[in-house]
């Protein structure tokens, strides 16, 4: 059995479910319908197959996820990944941190940002905008009630629009929930050789 991974990485590990995923061969028409909105051009992940055990939740979760992470306008896709990574680091969700840091690297074509975040956390030496995004998302993830009007004003002061700020809050908050699901429903494990 592959070992559980405990350290942050930009290499996406496998995910071993603790709750049995549905079997596509035996899926109900309702489960198959709910899976149609999954944003995958390869295979449906075990995580999504676990969520398909609750069709109604999956039917709502997936469009919400897609709208928050993939909508046009507002915060760039790469910057949304910084928010998702910050939440994942705070919540120690190694799998999600790997997925979102890897996606950031692909979008931004800059691996240094995530290397610094994983090495130095909130003290990471980032440009002003990336630093503000990461620090706000970290604060929101650690103590939501402490993210206040002053924090929002700091984001405006570096040139972020209201739409960008909302996108950052949504992407960060979404992964507070997703991290909890990933933690309880399975484990990040080393890829099989």
TrEMBL record:
InterPro entries linked: AhpD-like (IPR029032), AhpD_core (IPR004675), CMD-like (IPR003779), Uncharacterised_peroxidase-rel (IPR010195)
Recorded GO MF terms: peroxiredoxin activity
Carboxymuconolactone decarboxylase-like domain sequence ranges: 57-138
Keyword annotations: Oxidoreductase, Peroxidase
Pfam families xrefs: CMD (PF02627)
Protein name, as recorded: Alkylhydroperoxidase
């Amino acid at each position: 059995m592959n070992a559980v991974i405990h350290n942050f990485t930009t290499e996406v590990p496998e995910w071993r479910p603790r709750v049995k995923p549905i079997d596509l061969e035996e899926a109900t028409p309702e489960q198959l319908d709910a899976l149609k909105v999954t944003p995958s051009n390869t295979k449906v992940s075990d995580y999504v197959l676990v969520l398909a055990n609750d069709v109604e939740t999956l039917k709502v979760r997936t469009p919400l996820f897609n709208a928050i992470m993939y909508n046009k306008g507002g915060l760039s896709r790469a910057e949304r990944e910084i928010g998702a990574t910050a939440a994942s680091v705070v919540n120690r969700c190694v799998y999600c941190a790997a997925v979102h840091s890897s996606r950031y690297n692909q979008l931004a074509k800059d691996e240094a940002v995530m290397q610094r975040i994983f090495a130095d956390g909130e003290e990471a030496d980032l440009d002003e905008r990336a630093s503000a995004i990461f620090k706000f998302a970290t604060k929101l993830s650690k103590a939501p009630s402490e993210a206040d009007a002053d924090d929002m004003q700091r984001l405006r002061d570096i040139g972020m629009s209201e739409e960008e700020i909302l996108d950052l809050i949504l992407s960060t908050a979404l992964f507070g929930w997703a991290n909890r699901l990933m933690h309880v429903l399975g484990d990040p494990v080393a890829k099989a050789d």
